[in-house]
Structures are given as structure tokens and as C-alpha cells.
Amino acid sequence: QVQLVESGGGLVQAGDSLRLSCAASGRTFSENNMAWFRQAPGKEREFVAGINWSGSRIWYADSVKGRFTISRDNAKNTVYLQMNSLKPEDTAVYSCAATNRGCSAYGCYVTPGWFDYWGQGTQVTVSS
User: Fold this and answer.
1) What's the DSSP call for residue 108?
2) What is the pLDDT of residue 88?
3) I need a labelling partner for 121 at 20 to 30 A (CA). Which of 5, 18, 20, 57 fits?
4) What is the per-residue pLDDT for 1?
């Protein structure tokens, strides 16, 4: 069992930066593939970024590529999402997800159903 707790959300202006953290419980964090998803009001949950267990493979949604950076610190059981040049359309609840299923394909990481564990989410609001 893995428990995930997100933090770092808030209200910022367009162009600002935020750093989200996702702290995981459990001794097997380093075996888990991780991702960030977001969901805006009235919209479906969408993939933002994913990182494999070792950090050697990373994927981004086209909408955030070049602005967001995902990373992980296995010693701290934490995955991060650095968000720069924020836009109003980035406004959403951001959630992290984890799984210990093996897959090295982009198609796995963009699929919410592939992940077994989810955090409660943290609100990010970007004003124009």
C-alpha cells in the first residue's frame, strides 16, 4: 500500500512559478512509477507528466512541455513538479499517482487506470 500526499498548490498570477511535491509512504517508493495528472472543473482528468522508478524516463504532455519539470528523490520518497511560466489554463486540481506495474511506454503513463494509488490533490489557480 502506498499513500500519497500532495502539497505546494496555491493562487498565483500568470507567469509565476510553483513547485508541487508528492510525499509517499511505504518502503517501496523507489519501485514505483509516478505521474502527475490534473483536472479542471467540468473537464476530464488529463496527464501532465510521468517519471519511471529510476528517473531515467520522463514524459510530458504537449501543453506543459518546456514549462514543467518532473523529478523525484527516492531517498525522500518524494516526486516533484516544477511549474514555470504558469498560464490561466493550468488552473486545476493536481494529483500524483503511483504504480509498481512495469511499463516503459508513454501509453501507460498517460492512462489514469494504469495507476493504483492516488493522492487527494492540490489546487493550483492561475489568475490572468
Assistant:
1) H
2) 97
3) 57
4) 82
